[in-house]
Design a protein that fits this description.
With 205 residues, this protein is mostly beta strands. The chain has strands spanning 2-3, 29-34, 37-42, 46-48, 68-73, 76-81, 84-86, 93-96, 99-104, 107-110, 119-122, 125-130, 133-136, 141-144, 152-158, 161-164, 167-173, 179-185, 188-190, 194-201. The chain starts with a strand and ends with a strand.
């Protein structure tokens, strides 16, 4: 088990800026990669952010900053497999301007945090999500395009079991660029406020 510190001051600030105002306090991460190639996180094992509201770890002394559990910026050939991701303080994972991503047999448990999306993507290409078990406090899978020159393209989502306080798959929120070729098959959604939600909101155009 890899556990994140309960002290926000322990998290590095040398990360790429986020592209939308609502998340300006979420810059820190437990695991962060930038401009990397052929990298991954593979289990078995658990990465525990210790960030659930039930544990009352974040925010620290009314500090609004909260670390994401995992963020990849401008990376290629990423594999995340056979690992459990538990109790992030905010987003569980965020893939930004990255390509050739394989996410397989991943378990996410983030229901105890209201802003804890499971798998989020901004401007990514060739993404495969297969046989994952997601139980999230916010959208389980979210596709955003926060820059018009960086579309989300060629997503294949299959064999996943999803429970969410919000949407199983949310497409288009905070999006000002294109989202193309999204294939969803053989998935089971239970106790979600929405299944596949396609919308234009929260700054989308």
């Amino acid at each position: 088990i890899l556990r994140g510190s309960p002290k926000i001051a322990d998290y590095a600030v040398e990360t790429a800026p986020l592209h939308w105002v609502a998340a300006k306090q979420w810059k820190q991460c437990l695991i962060y990669a930038e401009d990397a190639e052929q990298i991954g996180i593979e289990g078995p094992g658990t990465i525990d952010g210790q960030g659930s509201s039930e544990r009352k770890v974040f925010p620290n002394a009314n500090d609004p900053r909260r670390p994401m559990l995992v963020r990849f910026e401008r990376c290629r050939r990423i594999a995340v497999r056979d690992v459990t991701l538990l109790d992030p303080a905010v987003f569980t994972t965020f893939f930004v301007h990255s390509e050739d991503i394989a996410i397989e047999r991943v378990t996410i448990r983030s229901r105890k945090t209201s802003t804890a999306d499971g798998l989020d993507f901004d401007g990514c290409k060739r993404v495969r999500i297969a046989d994952c078990d997601l139980d999230t406090g916010d959208d389980a899978i979210g596709l955003k395009t926060l820059h018009p020159d960086w579309p989300n393209e060629d997503f294949d989502i299959s064999g996943c079991r999803i429970t969410s306080r919000w949407c199983a798959i949310r497409v288009g929120a905070e999006s000002i660029g294109a989202i193309r070729r999204l294939n969803v098959r053989d998935c089971v959604f239970t106790q979600c406020q929405g299944g596949i939600k396609i919308e234009s909101c929260e700054g989308a155009q």
